[in-house]
Amino acid sequence: MPQEPLAYSRSQREHYLHTLHDFLRIPSISTLPEAEPDIQRAAQWLADTMAGIGLDQVALMPTAGYPVVYGEWLGAGPEAPTLLFYGHYDVQPVDPVAEWLSPPFEPTVRNNQLFCRGASDDKGQVALVLAAVDSYLRTEGRLPVNLKVMIEGEEEIASPNLTAWVEQHKALLACDAVLICDSNILAEDLPLINHGTRGMAYLEVELQGPATDLHSGSFGGAVDNPFNVLVRILAQLQDGETRRVLIPGFYDRVAPPDAQEQRLLAQLPISDQVVQMQTGAPAVAGETGYTAAERLSVRPTLDIHGMPGGFTGKGGKTVIPAKAAAKVSMRLVPDQDPAEIAALFERAVKSLAPATVKVTVRTLGLARWSLVDLHAPAIQAAAQAYQAGFQAAPLFMRGGGTLPIVAEFQDTLGAPVVMMGFGLPDDNAHAPNEKLSLACFYRGIETVIHYLALLPEAMRKSGQ
Amino acid sequence: MPQEPLAYSRSQREHYLHTLHDFLRIPSISTLPEAEPDIQRAAQWLADTMAGIGLDQVALMPTAGYPVVYGEWLGAGPEAPTLLFYGHYDVQPVDPVAEWLSPPFEPTVRNNQLFCRGASDDKGQVALVLAAVDSYLRTEGRLPVNLKVMIEGEEEIASPNLTAWVEQHKALLACDAVLICDSNILAEDLPLINHGTRGMAYLEVELQGPATDLHSGSFGGAVDNPFNVLVRILAQLQDGETRRVLIPGFYDRVAPPDAQEQRLLAQLPISDQVVQMQTGAPAVAGETGYTAAERLSVRPTLDIHGMPGGFTGKGGKTVIPAKAAAKVSMRLVPDQDPAEIAALFERAVKSLAPATVKVTVRTLGLARWSLVDLHAPAIQAAAQAYQAGFQAAPLFMRGGGTLPIVAEFQDTLGAPVVMMGFGLPDDNAHAPNEKLSLACFYRGIETVIHYLALLPEAMRKSGQ
């Protein structure tokens, strides 16, 4: 038991929390071009903090987009395993801003929850790992593992430049395991290891009908309204009863879960009732023939995120808009191929469109799904660390979200990826009033301290 | 022939155009609460101008909303007919503002077209009537008719307070005919009299699913996305092949045009080809079994104007929005009842909604259709005036737009309503780059001068 680091981390909770506040105040929204100076500021803040706790070689390493902040501590010796920690310092947009109960970039604690954009996804989880490292280095003067830290700034825009960067720096990043803290557990006393992620194809469909907006009094009835056409097309992409996606070929490569996976799914305390309670929906529904746990992990989805165009202000405006658009993403599972799904989507949309509109389909993002070997020692050590940090054995579930880098790390570095998260399902990630449970933050620090201590022994036992 | 007023009006074209510029510069967008001071400013500008040309009793008359600007000239004597002129000084919003080639409230002449929000709908048409009156009064010192002028400020928000105001001021408004200049002709040499208007029911549907926005990675697949549900519901309101509205009961009261109407419809030079050319759509489509002219005048419609909610910014955001909404209007024809149609719409939407969403349907506006007796002397005088002003006999068509006050005037004042417009189908009313043809503006002034001259004789002949 790493008693000294644990005790020290408890004594420094206020300090670590205030350090996180400073990180959270920087509105590093990667999808907004105008936020570029803030992204750079967040990267610099992170580099200063990493150097401050004792990491070496700290640098803002350039990519074709925003920099990766890198640092390392390699003093554990050649026998000790090397752990690569990955996180991200960029955050989601904040709209609808009116729904925030406190300003989105002003860290505010209410009911032992820290509210701020990025609190859970992912600044809070990055901060707790750095706190664990700090506690170790301040007390023991060393870590039990060699540590490499890379924190990127483009995760929320699907990491367009990360694959190239990882391949370019393959030698620098060489490691025995990768740790990612960017996921949710099920409840404050129900830790969870994600042994996979869903992929994604995010597309935007735009229909152009008339050359300009028209007055619906002058032209209504004699031209196709692009929104009327668009809702018909979108409605035909998903069955209203079974919620099956109707894009031809969509399910062709979906692999059913194996027996082990089915046992793990059956253990999950996730049901329609739980989802309904967590979301506050009047009722829930999903793909016929699958449980809530399956729908959230091993089944693909199709979601419309917004429909730009026309008049959306207060009151009424009788316009037939020249253009109507929809932002649509599909979460993908093994063995669906994101580029193939994007092509199937585009073909389906175009085949459903009448001659009265011109269809443009743009790809906003593609990301691969991933699967991690449950039996890898780095994963088993994570299970022990959760037990120690939360006094509860973790459950295992493929994550419903998308972390494009997981498959990339496994392929390029040949190392298993450990997804040990500390968010909660009601953290409102990507939504107004995002928050982080302070209990999860503090337990997270201790769990990571345990993990740093447990990893060498687990790797040794397995002979890896 | 009123030679002096005509000659004077020609000499004053620049002056009348510049006066219109001043009117157009005031951004009197009635649907925007923040535009209230501008609406008041537009009303005051109008009152000053009406007093300036010699109208009496000019006043901003209060309503429960924005004021009606009233003025009169009653010096023609008890034997002369009394004409009530109606127009509006409010305008539509300007979004999408990026599509304007010149600033929306900066009058700009290009290619003999005056570009500005309100140029055609309706400030330009109000200005040309006032110019005609001015030309008469400056030259003859009197008008051939008694004239009452009422210009309202809430037409673009469906005139919520006008019915009450007209009923309250029934005596003040007593007249033999009503003139409205707020419609389009077919081309610069194809004048058109609208002998009817479509009604309207404008509704907003809002679906609430989850209590807050959700991350589609965390919850996608296990909850109904309100946008996915909404497109399914909306798609079921209109047949994708026939473009028939599928709301049960929608067509129950639609009266087929009579033989006279069918003859007039057959004379209209409106075809799918013309509509396609006017709108720039790749192809056009409408209700199966009806011609373009019928679809635009004697058939009802359903149009989606915009779908608020979710993420509509640049890039991608993977949100399952808590709410999704749609703004939908239906243009209505004899004998559909707007309130009944609104109720049928609400019932249909609610019956199509699954238990996973809460449905709210708000009525944003209801307006009655109207029909005018073609044989009324005031209409026949308008036909003669067009012939004199445009050197072309007008066609007759029920207007596709909505002027809620037409039915109200006919019922309350017992006077026929003459809809003599000077806009063109490509004027971009309600759209970016709204404009008015200067040729129409100048011909409009002369046509109204002719109308003032012709009306007394037409009324006398008919013994009215």
Give a description of the structure.
2 copies of one chain form a homodimer. Chain A has helices at residues 3-11, 13-24, 36-52, 123-140, 162-168, 216-219, 226-235, 259-267, 272-279, 292-295, 338-352, 377-390, 405-413, 438-461, and strands at 56-61, 68-73, 82-88, 108-110, 113-115, 146-152, 177-180, 192-194, 196-197, 199-208, 214-215, 303-310, 319-320, 323-332, 358-367, 370-371, 395-397, 417-420, 435-437. The first copy, chain A, is an alpha+beta fold. In chain A, helix 1 packs antiparallel against helix 14 (438-461) and helix 4 crosses helix 14. Chain A is globular. Chains A and B meet through strand 10, strand 11, helix 6, helix 7 and helix 9 of A and strand 10, strand 11, helix 6, helix 7 and helix 9 of B. Strand 12 of chain A pairs antiparallel with strand 12 of chain B.
Task: Give me some keywords for this one.
homodimer, 464 residues, alpha+beta, eight-stranded mixed sheet, four-stranded antiparallel sheet, 14 helices, 20% strand, globular
Percentage of residues in helical conformation of chain A: 25-40%
Instruction: Identify the quaternary structure here.
Output: homodimer
Q: Using the CA coordinates, give the radius of gyration of chain A.
A: 23 Å
Provide a count of the helices of chain A.
Answer: 14
Number-wise, the strands of chain A total 19
Strand residue percentage of chain A = 15-25%
- Principal-axis shape of chain A equals globular
Integer average pLDDT of chain A? 96
Class per helix and strand makeup of chain A: alpha+beta
Major sheet of chain A: order of its strands?
A: 1-2-6-3-7-18-8-17
Cα distance, first to last residue of chain A?
Answer: 22 Å
Biggest β-sheet strands, sense, barrel of chain A: 8 strands, mixed
- Biggest interface and which pair forms it? A-B, 107 and 106 residues
Low-pLDDT segments, ≥5 res of chain A = none
